[in-house]
Structures are given as structure tokens and as C-alpha cells.
Amino acid sequence: MKNGNANLFERMMKVASKIEAHELKAVLLSFGFVFILMAAYYILRPVRDAMASDWTDTELSFLWTLNFFISCAVVALYGIAVSNVRFRVLVPGVYAFFGLSFVAFYFGVSTLTDTVLIDKTFYVWVSVFSLFHISVFWSFMSDLFNQEQSRRLFAFIAAGSSAGALLGPSIPALFTGVLGTDTLMLIAAVMLTLPIPIILYLDRLKIVELHNEDVRADLTQASIGGNPFSGFKMFFTNPYLLGIGAFILLYTTISSFVYFEQKNLLAEFDRETRTQILAWVEWIVNGLTFAIGMFATSRIVTRFGMPFTLALVPVFIALGLLILAFAPILTVVLALQVARRAGNYGITRPAREMLFTAVDRETRFKAKPVIDIAVYRGGDMVSSWAFAGLTDGVGLGLGAMAAVGAGIAAVWAAVGRFLGRKFEAVNGKQAAAAEAVEPA
């Protein structure tokens, strides 16, 4: 009877998700793997963001500047590790390292009376961690499954990421008052060690059940290449890539403005209350992102085109910032934050990734890391100093800053529309060229 139930479950999974019986164990474990990772990260994120309200805009700008340089350095060190450490050792080592680091933070904040330095270090370190926890996971997946399997299985596995992103913030939202923010660090740290035996077992399943012993993740293609500056050269000499960079730079500027507004308005609450508020924001964002991604994004792109899709969220955010300029209150800021992040994750980010399909493979692999890391984190750094200069320096209030942000969002929308038109023009030329070479 037990075997009959197992066979029925296998048949159901094959029909629903095209998962073969010999793949089922590896797929479910991979689903659980990414579920744990995302849940752990979204436990840590509200704890991190709640700390920011204790600091001035200038102090936070220093931390974002530090984050930019540390992120670039850690990415470079990780690239060296990829070239010199066996992949089956590297992946569990990364999660063990981060897990132990958060255990150290827990004992630091629990035992010391003055935790300002530890809090600021934790703030930067979670931001660095956010670059790696999913990137390393998907590198491991590309080493586990072959190309044919990846097309069938990765969408199901990715659903584990969405499920974890929904569960994670629920824990601080519901239990911060009981557990305290320090204990949340320890819970997340323990969770990051749970994937280690999963990784080791998946590495065994790769051979005994998947029979993918010849599959190797081609990580060298994801690096900048032999010349560490070739990606920068491609970026600065290609107008289309510069447009994508400008789009991301404007996005990070708006993100910084909304984040700083949120940080300042939350300053009147204690840290535990902030953590709970921000955890509920995370939960709503991830729920909306899941719904938008499942039911709306593809329909918006196919029906209205890329110019409309890329400009949609910026226009909405510009209107929201105008409302905030006249009503600079916490409720409006939080609603704007939810709309901005859910719109980005559900609509803008997928559409932005589509833009890279219009360039050749070499450009995509060499220039994309420059845009995703250097431009993104550099934009955070520059925009944070701009905000601090206008508030701490010039003395502009929240309403005036929201009006400035609305103008920037309008430019962001215009750049998105321009990029969408360029993308469709390139795709049109490629389609015409493909038709021209087809035999009659």
C-alpha cells in the first residue's frame, strides 16, 4: 500500500510538473534547500532594516559606501575561491561560514552593553550575504541537473524560494515580541546550517539517481573573464548597456529615497516594533510578488509591450511620491515601499532581465556582473550621499524629498520607455534576419 501511494504521488508529480520518478527526491530536496535559504534571509532582513532608524542619514550613507567596497571585494574573493576550491566543498562551506558569522553576531549583541559597532557591522554583513545566498544556490543547481532537466525542473524548484520568502518574515512579524531580535539572528544562523547535509546528499543523488556525473557548472562563463576590466569596457562603449545601467541607477536612487524616508519615519518606534512592522511589509511584498509573477507579468509584456512594462512601475512610483510630498506620513511610505518592491520583483526585474537577451552571449556574461554589482551598489552609495546631503546638509524635509524623488521617477520612466523601444527594435531586426536566412 505504501508503494502504491508512492507510485501515485510520483505519477501526480510527473503530470503536474513534468518531474520523472528518478528526479523526484533531488527536486524535493532542492525545493526544501532554497525554501530554508529564503526563510533565513527574510528573518534577518527586518532585523537589519530596523537598526537603520537608530542612525542619521549620514551614518547610513557611510555604511552603504562601505557595503559597496566590501561587496566588490567579496565578489572578487569568491571568484578566486571558485577557481581553486572544489565545488562540492565550496557550496556547503559558504553556508557554514555565513551561519557561523551570524552565531557570532548573536553572542556579540547578547553579551556586550554597547552594540553600536556590532549593529553596523551586522547591517553591512547581511547586505553582503544577500548577494550570495541565492546566487550560490543556483550555481549548485546548474551543477546538479543537466540542461534538459533544468528547463523542466527549475520553475518548480524556484517556487520553494517564493514559499520561503513568505514564511521567513512571518516569524519576526509574529514572534519578535516574544523572542526578541537577538534570538532571530540565532534562528536564522541555525537554519543556514540545515542545507549542509542536504547539499552532501544531493551530491550523492547526482550520481546514483540522476546519473549526471558528467555535468559541471560552467562558472568561468559567469566571471568577468581573463581581463578583469573587459566587462567595464563593454559597458562604457555600448549605448544600450549604458541605458540599462542608467535604468538601474535611477531605480537604486528611488529605492534609496523611499528607504531613507521609511527609516526616518520609523525612528519614533522601538527596535522590536520596527522589526515587526518591517516583517509584515516583507510578507505583503512577497505575497504580491508571487501573485504578480504568476498571473500578471507575462500578460503585461505580451499585451502592452516592453516600453509600457518598463515604464509602468516608475510612473506608479512617481505618482506615489507626489502623494507622499503632500502627506509625508508612515502609512503612505510603507504603502509606497510595498508597491515599489512588489512592482520591481514582479514586473520590472523580470523585464529588465529580458533586456539582456538582446545582446550577444559574451557581452551578457562579461558586462552583466558590472551592471548588477558595480552599478547597483555604486548607485546605492551615490544616492544615499545625495539624500544625506539634501536632508542633513541642506535641511530639506520629507515632503520636499518626496517631490525630488517624483522627478527622478519620471526620468526613470522615460529611460524605461526608451530601453523598451530599443529592445523591440533589436528583436525586430533579429527576427527579420532569421526569416531572411530561412529556406523558402
Description of the structure:
The chain is mainly alpha-helical. The protein folds into 2 domains: 3-7 and 9-223, Growth Hormone, Chain: A; 227-426, Growth Hormone, Chain: A. It is built from 16 helices and no strands. The chain has helices spanning 2-17, 24-51, 57-84, 87-111, 116-144, 147-179, 181-193, 195-208, 230-237, 239-265, 271-295, 297-304, 306-326, 330-355, 361-393, 398-437. α2 runs antiparallel to α5. The longest helix is centred in the last third of the chain and has 40 residues, at 398-437. Mean pLDDT is 84; it is low at 218-225.
Instruction: Quickly count the helices.
Output: 16
Largest sheet geometry:
none
The helix/strand class is mainly alpha
List the quaternary state of the chains.
single chain
State the domain count. 2
Termini separation: 58 Å
CATH fold-level name of the largest domain: Growth Hormone, Chain: A
Strand content: under 5%
CATH architecture of the largest domain: Up-down Bundle
Radius of gyration: 23 Å
Shape: globular
Order of helices and strands: HHHHHHHHHHHHHHHH
